[in-house]
Amino acid sequence: MFPDLTGQLHVREQQGLRRQRAVMTGQQSVRVVIDNRSYLSFCSNDYLGLASHPELIQAACEGARQYGVGAGASHLINGHSMAHHALEQALASFTGFPAALAFSTGYMANMGVITALAGRNDAIFADRLNHASLNEAALLSRARLIRYPHCDTVALERRLAASTCRRKLIVTDAVFSMDGDIAAVNRLIELCEQYDAMLLLDDAHGFGVLGDKGRGILFSPAGGGLHSERIISRVIYMATLGKAAGVFGAFVAAAEEVVETLIQTAKGYIYTTASPPLLAHALLKSLERIENDDWRRDKLYRLIKLLKIELQPLKWQLMPSNTPIQPLVIGKALDTVRVSNSLKDKGILVPAIRQPTVPQGTARLRISLSAVHEEADILFLADALRQIAAVDGVYG
Questions:
Q1: Annotated catalytic residue: which of 81, 104, 141, 177?
Q2: Which stretches of the chain score pLDDT less than 50?
Q3: Which terminus in the chain has less CB density within 10 A, N or C?
Q4: Could you tell me the domains of the chain?
């Protein structure tokens, strides 16, 4: 009935680009069951191991008893519960901003912020490796989209200096999801001050992991390590709540007038049913664990260091990342899929990331670490990769 689609799918299959969904049984953890087989997983964004934490499960059950399982309406009609309100207040306090606004997803949050704050006669300056949600939102806003080379603040400054647009908005990932590197946030803020611009920071992969008590990129050395009024006056901070926080959703933290503007004009907030209040109730418990469980971040960074040591002899390139995202570049898409499948045969799940997600010729294994991994898990993965590399003749 749709021969053109069938042909396109066949081409994707031949190029090693067709994705498959794995159906998982049971809870998210570092050990998962798929098709009745147990695997050691390095696929999850559950960086702190909170997705199956007993206290969060209990909080979700409490929230369901108190609020039910559905919000029943959008936030501006009758769906904004006390749980949502308490979570927004807690997130604002935790991140050091005057106000915060909860969204259903990070994609919707980025779409809402960019289309609400930029339009015709405005300019959006975007890192070339930004997440798809930032790129799509920039196009939808109808503002002039000006892209700059990855993390190249010199090139960005030239573009800012040349712009005569009414409003300037810099948008960037804080931690880049496929490379694991970190934006030069402190320098970006300086450029905002110099050229009267705003900065949207997508800290999806930094919140809970980076900075003092896991408060994110702005509390890390890359963000100056210290929150201040200069940040509040220039930065719109977005983070997701389904990664290190272990639950679901996203939020935007900013100055009060920014958050109020989003409430009034962000279509992804206005025209959607509010997320279940039980999730907001569970996230309050997640914030407690993020703030108080320093041992989770300490362990995570020990595991990152161990992985770097163990994979150093390989000729495959482990990209320079000090985050839980550790990309191992294989090169060709078909080769990367084959290595990923070889790991799966050994009981290890590591996803193969290919074009168009990453540039052609840079296909990679995206190794994601969690605080609930053990050192033995890292050693098992490293040994399996060495065995595969030896067969391929790429072991140093």
A1: 177
A2: 396
A3: N
A4: 3-41+295-392 (3.90.1150.10), 54-292 (3.40.640.10)
